[in-house]
Write a structure and sequence with these properties.
By secondary structure, the protein is mostly helical. It is built from ten helices and two strands. The chain has one domain.
Length: about 260
């Protein structure tokens, strides 16, 4: 293997092994449901807020670890209290992070709220629509990411948004959409969704890609390559779950407007 090829695929082994571990843990929590699934969601969202807090910290900022713990505690409180009014608490970690000195306050506020909405969305979708909708979401995000990864490296070509995400190509982006269509078709043929999944799946994949780009922009402003080094081959929790965040928030918004064509009615 040439030096260029080795650099291009050098992270593949670590990336694959880490992905298998994450899939195993996620699958077990999803199958168990209830507090097992909620605990995993709280852990991931708390970690994402910790990473965001680290990347935007200034002298005098609320400690990043405290932000992560606060985010997890607020999600837990929202679950316990329930009701529409309780969802207003999701703003608390975002607001707490910007009352003290903070780099890019508006960016922190928006992304912290996105993380909290993602956690809330995953828990409520699992409870209200069953396992199928979470499996579909994860499949769309994972397949579009894998298709984009390989197409971007094998085909290359023009960059999708070079100023924000210099590695993302149009070939990888479109491959991700096509992969999402295949996922939608698979769920439809398996009797787990309607024909609307054929257009909704690539739309969700695109929302995920925008979530990925948003996180890339935050890292570039912070001068960071990865959000942290917690996950070998993937970086941090934000690096791994940024696309899922964009996808989940879109699906939750749609679920409030129209019946989802997947999962329980």
């Amino acid at each position: 293997m040439s030096g260029v090829s080795a650099r291009r695929w050098g992270d593949l082994k670590a990336r694959a092994l880490s992905a298998l571990v994450m899939l195993a843990v996620g699958a077990l929590a999803l199958w168990l449901g209830g507090w097992a699934f909620a605990a995993l969601v709280l852990l991931v969202c708390g970690t994402m807020l910790w990473e965001l807090g680290q990347m935007t910290a200034l002298p005098g900022s609320l400690p990043a670890l405290a932000l992560g713990a606060l985010g997890a505690a607020v999600l837990l409180a929202v679950m316990q209290i329930g009701g529409a009014l309780a969802t207003g608490l999701l703003l608390v970690p975002a607001l707490a992070g910007v009352v003290a000195p903070r780099r890019d306050r508006a960016v922190f506020l928006a992304y912290a709220l996105l993380v909290m909405l993602t956690g809330y969305g995953l828990i409520t979708l699992r409870a209200g629509h069953g396992v199928a909708v979470i499996l579909w979401l994860l499949a769309v995000v994972i397949v579009s990411d894998v298709m984009g990864y390989f197409a971007g490296r094998l085909i290359g070509g023009p960059k999708f948004w070079p100023k924000v995400s210099p590695k993302k190509t149009w070939s990888g982006t479109v491959a991700g959409w096509l992969g999402a269509v295949v996922v939608g078709l698979g769920f439809m043929l398996a009797g787990q969704g309607g024909a609307a999944l054929l257009w909704l799946s690539p739309l969700v994949a695109f929302a995920g890609q925008l979530g990925d780009i948003a996180e890339s922009a935050i890292k570039r402003r912070a001068g960071a390559k990865d959000s942290s080094q917690l996950i070998p081959g993937h970086g941090g929790a934000m690096d791994r779950f940024d696309a899922l965040a964009g996808a989940v928030v879109l699906v939750v918004a749609l679920a409030h407007l129209v019946p989802l064509p997947v999962g329980m009615p």
